[in-house]
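Quick one:
INPUT:
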């Protein structure tokens, strides 16, 4: 019973991670890239929680790491959106190919 639940969570996390990876590697809009990165981080969080609950040695360590990851992801999203807004105001686009110059 627990192996079935763990494998279903891990399968869902793998699907979410693959969707996020596809979006991060193929999309040109910077907002979509940020959303894809968040999707990948949430897939990792799902893995951490599932393995902490249904793993060989169940403990709270995975859940604590997932809380840490959620905190880092929130900070990353806030900083990333702020940078995107600043770049959009200066250049008028959110295309990642136009944002390759950080020298100025």
């Amino acid at each position: 019973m627990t192996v079935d639940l763990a494998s279903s969570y891990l399968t869902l996390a793998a699907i979410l991670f693959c969707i996020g990876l596809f979006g991060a590697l193929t999309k040109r809009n910077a907002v979509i890239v940020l959303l894809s990165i968040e999707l990948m981080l949430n897939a990792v969080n799902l893995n951490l929680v599932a393995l902490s609950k249904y793993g060989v040695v169940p403990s709270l360590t995975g859940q604590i790491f997932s809380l840490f990851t959620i905190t880092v992801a929130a900070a990353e999203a806030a900083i990333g959106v702020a940078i995107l807004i600043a770049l959009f105001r200066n250049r008028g686009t959110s295309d990642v190919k136009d944002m390759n110059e950080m020298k100025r």
